[in-house]
Amino acid sequence: MQAPFILKSDRGSPRFMARNDHHGPWGSPPAEEPGPEPPADKTGARPRVPPRRSPPSRPPAGPTRLDGVGRRVADEARRLQDGLSRWGPPPAAIPIAIAAALLGWAASGVYLVQADQAGVVTRLGAFAGVAGPGLGYHLPAPLGAVQKVSVARANETVVGGGDTAGAASREVVLTADGNLAAVGFVVDWKVKDPRAYLRNVRHPDGLVQVLAEDAVRQAVARVSFGDLLVGGRAAAEERAAVTLQQGLAAAGAGIEVEAVRIRSAGPAPAAAPAFDDISAAAQDSAADRDAAGDRSKKALADAQSQGAVVIAQAEATRAQAVSQAQAEVARFAGALAAWRANPDLTRSRIYAETLEAILAHSRKIVVDAHGVAITPSQGTAPVQVRPLPTPPGDKAPR
Fold this sequence. Notes:
Blueprint: E1 4-8, E2 14-18, H1 65-87, H2 93-107, E3 110-113, E4 117-123, E5 126-131, E6 134-137, E7 144-150, E8 155-159, E9 171-174, E10 180-191, H3 194-200, H4 204-220, H5 225-229, H6 233-251, E11 255-267, H7 272-341, H8 343-358, E12 366-367, E13 372-375, E14 384-387
Antiparallel strand pairs: 1-2, 3-6, 4-5, 4-7, 8-10, 9-10, 10-11, 12-13, 13-14
Helix pairs in contact: 4-6, 7-8
């Protein structure tokens, strides 16, 4: 089989011609013409001429790389010609397919923005506007594009491990009283300006973290270590939020800081042993104060109860004295009235009552100047006053 050989015509299209595998592309050399026959001798016989030997034949040459390339090109050309002759001219569906492709490309500019999003529309790479929630349209790519940003969702950036990590991963800051504190906090923020956010911020969490660390350092440097642990966190959080917002505004980040929350605070790892000793001493002191307070409260309660008893007794004594005084006054008023009515009788009765009160527990017999014997009886019986017998020759007393 003869392989085709490629020739290039003046017009640039390839031409093919057969190739002789033994003698090259130009075919076999022309056959040699027979030479003149030698003259005959006297007998009429022609001398024998030795046959002319032909040159030794060359072995057939093997296929070269150029032959393989030409064969492949010829096959591809033949296949192309067969395809064109088979299908003929382009069908009428091709314009329809092109129109459908153009319509789909134009429809790719339709977009939907969710309720919590904002769409930043660009045209030829330049800012074209901010689209709100709903359907919208921009020029198809690559002429236009839209980038959607969540503006209602709150984002969190945790710095220093928040409240779950240990002191080793927290941020170490210096307090106002010169102590080292390990602080973990969280920043709550959201996107306020979508255009500035997409244009100026590539890594929002990293930017917020760097600026928040600086803001917290400045805020904590204005409070003492004790206030940071107990009651001074709110003031430090407010200062840190204000400072962070100023830094983000200066960077043009389009981010609004909602809050800075200090979730954990404690001593730095290097100062933790000393802080533990101080805390233990403070706890012991607090326990002693509580015990002393309990004892003081108990003693005060006992004193108050005893004072109440004394006050009650004094009130009773006062009431008794007042009642006795009132009784004495009433008795005196009655004696005064009786005195005024009958002085002699009243004087004798008062005299007898006085002696009765004095000699109520005495076993002696007293005789007065008038010879009257006063004999007290047993117990609380009234004193019996009776006159003594008059001796003979004496007169009875008056």
